[in-house]
């Protein structure tokens, strides 16, 4: 392929258009790209774009509608809204990019999308603290887990960054002034045995923003806009590959139709009801409460 | 394909992500699209987008760079600038859409892109008039032609809409206040024999706008930003298919590397030097002048 393109690039009539060879002709025009990787990416992008246009026989009106959609998507973006990432999310592209970069790796905990709400740093908190500063506005919940490597050895002192929506489906940044800043976020440090635990509330499923072009697309395709309920977890430590994932709530709606395709079977966990006044008191929780355990397996770098 | 998707759409775990089946899973989510054509287009778009990501092994950083590029492209657009159309142009997509919608059709004159400068109506002018109201600031030129159908019969009274850049490579709308409004534009009406003629100046090659993301892309790929010199021609009449095309100047640079891939061999014409004081005087042109003849063949609608 690459050699064909180079030949076409030096052919005298490479710049004159022929529908049958359209992608080749455009690819030939990229022969002067000094960044070889950029050229590889653009060549593939051009070929797939041209194949798409030919395959569906895109009309001029449909092309113009596409131009309008892309323009409106760009113009919907601002400091707190990224409509192109949302478009990537609802077309499954973000999950695919995650999968390409973090393929299934034996016992290692599976990854999923980071999402758009990791925009502020989580406040450092002590093991056992609550991340709910708004005062238990939802079902009280204990989260426990242990970070180990692929040989089962604990990762002492691993960083556990968590963030989540509240019991009404909103993140703190969506309710400025209504809830404390950095509510339902926390940065914990695992103990010597890799263990972590903290208190929170059970998160609710929630809709992605639908007041832009992506919302229009979801509506036109008869799709709902909801994400299944989840707690975001990012685990990092020196010498291990950072893991970005979710804990999904097993009785949430939308586990089978998460609008960003973020659900993986292995990430769904029971948030089990616990009726145990002694244990509740130990953790400073009301009784009854719910409990989810989320063991995390990370891979150590082979070359430090 | 359609049936496979419908089956997947009703499968219980369609919304859970699997990298191997990513495009299928997203396509299944489109099962509720009431507009069958929209579903066909989106299904193909998703499949090609996912194949592209897998084929190049897009990294998270490259994905993020793509998101930034698309966002900036959308945000560069305003009432007089359409950066997404420009992107479509320089990737050969606009020419491909034109080709898909106006395939080669025997003796019919070939089409090419309309371009972004047909934004104001051309003023009606009498046959033989000049479209250069700025006072012959370039090489004087006579344009002649005849509109016929595929059987060689004249198309009496055909509308001939022309617009072009000046001898410095600018359209009127790019020099507001400097040149008369609607300079180098004209709407002519062919005579009973389908003939048309008018005076102008020889257009110059010119660059597309490079102060936006598309300019950055052209630079990164080692491409120049120039279009070969041309006169835009749009021919219409009741009962015939409208033709949008260019007359390319045969001694222009960039005929082999037009940055929007607009050149077709059949549209290149000699702008022949003429040294003939009598003929010059007949047309109200200085001597010597240049002359291009552009016969136009259009197709009559079979169903009026």
From TrEMBL, chains A, B:
Domain Intradiol ring-cleavage dioxygenases per the UniProt entry, residue ranges: 143-171
Keyword Iron (UniProt): yes
Entries under SUPFAM superfamilies matching the protein: Aromatic compound dioxygenase (SSF49482)
A Gene Ontology molecular function term of the record: dioxygenase activity
Keyword field: Dioxygenase, Iron, Metal-binding, Oxidoreductase
InterPro entries noted in UniProt: Catechol_dOase_N, Intradiol_dOase_C, Intradiol_dOase_core, Intradiol_RC_Dioxygenase
Keyword Lipid metabolism: no
Cofactor needs: Fe(3+)
Entry superkingdom: Bacteria
Similarity comment text for this entry: Belongs to the intradiol ring-cleavage dioxygenase family.
Protein name (Swiss-Prot/TrEMBL): Dioxygenase
Upper taxonomic lineage: Bacteria, Bacillati, Actinomycetota, Actinomycetes, Kitasatosporales
């Amino acid at each position: 392929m690459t050699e064909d393109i180079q030949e076409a690039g030096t052919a005298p009539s490479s710049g004159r258009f022929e529908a049958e060879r359209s992608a080749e002709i455009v690819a030939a025009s990229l022969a002067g790209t000094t960044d070889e990787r950029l050229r590889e990416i653009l060549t593939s992008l051009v070929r797939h774009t041209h194949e798409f246009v030919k395959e569906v026989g895109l009309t001029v009106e449909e092309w113009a509608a596409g131009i309008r959609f892309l323009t409106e998507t760009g113009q919907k973006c601002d400091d707190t809204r990224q409509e192109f990432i949302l478009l990537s999310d609802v077309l499954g592209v973000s999950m695919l990019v995650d999968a390409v970069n973090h393929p299934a790796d034996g016992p290692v905990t599976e990854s999923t999308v980071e999402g758009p709400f990791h925009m502020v740093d989580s406040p450092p908190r002590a093991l056992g603290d609550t991340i709910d500063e708004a005062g238990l506005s939802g079902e009280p919940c204990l989260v426990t887990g242990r970070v180990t490597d692929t040989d089962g050895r604990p990762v002492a002192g691993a960083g556990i960054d968590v963030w989540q929506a509240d019991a009404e489906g909103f993140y703190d940044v969506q309710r400025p002034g209504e809830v404390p800043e950095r509510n339902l976020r926390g940065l914990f440090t695992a103990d010597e045995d890799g263990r972590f635990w903290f208190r929170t509330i059970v998160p609710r499923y929630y809709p992605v923003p639908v007041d832009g072009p992506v919302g229009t697309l979801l509506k036109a395709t008869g799709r709902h806009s909801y994400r299944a309920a989840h707690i975001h977890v990012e685990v990092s430590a020196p010498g291990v590959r950072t893991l970005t994932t979710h804990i999904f709530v097993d009785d949430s709606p939308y586990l089978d139709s998460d609008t960003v395709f973020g659900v993986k079977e292995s990430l769904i966990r029971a948030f089990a009801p616990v009726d145990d006044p002694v244990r509740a008191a130990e953790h400073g929780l009301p009784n009854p409460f719910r409990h989810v355990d989320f063991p995390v397996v990370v891979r150590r770098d082979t070359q430090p």
